[in-house]
Specification:
By secondary structure, the protein is of the alpha/beta class. The protein is built from eight helices and seven strands. Helix 3 crosses helix 4. The chain starts with a strand and ends with a helix. The structure holds pyridoxal-5'-phosphate.
Amino acid sequence: MVVSKSQTYEKIIPFLELGHNIFGENRVQEALLKWPALKTKFPNTQLHFIGKLQTNKTKQAVALFDCIQTIDRPSIAKAIFEEFKNQNKILPLMVQINVGEESQKSGVMPCDVDDFINFCKNELKLPIIGVMAIPPAMKNPEPYFKYLKNIAKKHCLEEISMGMSDDFKTALACGSTIVRIGRKVFEA
Ligand SMILES: *Cc1c(COP(=O)(O)O)cnc(C)c1O
């Protein structure tokens, strides 16, 4: 995935012209300024939401994105469930896990992961296809990547979204299915 957050419409166009078709954005408002027009020009593009989702942005997020990777609390899971009904639309979803148990980061805490995934899948019948995480900065990410892979396996989830510009090689070696690259592609 090319992470196009904070990049302009003009900077994103060349990647679309090259045929790249999966992008990530972390703010609903910013994505709304760029992507309706980009998607009209390049209709096969898949846009993933990778930021913190506020409940009051759920409606716009469900309308614009093709996947939301950051489901992390019952209130947002319920809001998405309601929005699927309202818009008569279903998107694949992923559960974000706060693998380093960092207070400043989003994501469901490891101790709550199993219950939360079961709640989303069994009670709300949400189409959870994978897990996503951002490991702590300045630490060896490998144990966190391995943990995330194990959670995916335990719950039979196909997608494992992990790895960014600085750690994507380790992430791939640990079984990542989606690496999310921003700086390394735009600053190259
Ligand atoms: C910004 C961001 C990325 C990309 O990070 P880079 O270090 O620029 O590759 C990946 N995932 C998330 C959730 C981000 O917010």
